[in-house]
Amino acid sequence: MTSNRRARRRASASQTIQYALLAIVIGIVGWLADWKTLASQFVRLDVAARLFPGLLTIALKNTVVYTLSGFLLGLLLGLVIALMRLSHVLPYRWFAGLYIEFFRGLPALLIFMFVGVGIPLAFPGTELPGGTYGKVALGLGLVSAAYMAETIRAGIQAVPKGQMEAARSLGFSHRRAMLSIILPQAFRIIIPPLTNELVLLFKDSSLVLFLGVSLEERELTKFGRDLASETANTTPIFVAGLCYLIVTIPLGYLVRRLEARANASQGRT
Length: 269
What we know:
mainly alpha; amino-acid transport; AA_ABC_transptr_permease_3TM; membrane; transmembrane helix
């Protein structure tokens, strides 16, 4: 009993020391920082006012559209790749494996450059539907599909094999059992990682600036960067960053809640 009390005291003393050191570091940084210069460069209210309403009606709207279009395309393509990865047909598995390794191994920036430059060179005179919106959806979709495919595959494999066997014993075909029984259960399992992928796509949408967008097609990063150049002040970039946080922090909280709920349900089972 005495040894346990001593261990708790040592742990409490260690935590107190760590908190004190953290407070000291924060105090030193706060004391050394030039808050006046920082405020003039990042928190100019008159400069921030110039961002509205375009920040919401153009930049944030486009960012959301780019993200959702890329997510939906990636989800559909990822589902196909995942099913090919689990197929009994060997060429399907090879193709799916190569696709996943290829697009997970390359930086998203190179994929965007290929979509913006490589496709027009490879297929002269062709235009993707939607113009820039189509290019962004394709770039984000190709990258996210590789990650979603592995997530979906893991979700399908997490469903007990007895579910498929029971469905087949009831007269379901393999395709009908997969669509009606297996996939709905798999998607309930993988909702948290898919939501996390949505957060990543929201940030990766900033790569659209490498496609040469028009003023009405700018997203948050491009919009803030252009205004920062016009005003010779970094407040627009700071405000654009706040917009990212306003969206990603609630989504991150949602991911944690979904994961906690999934873990709780698994614990009950």
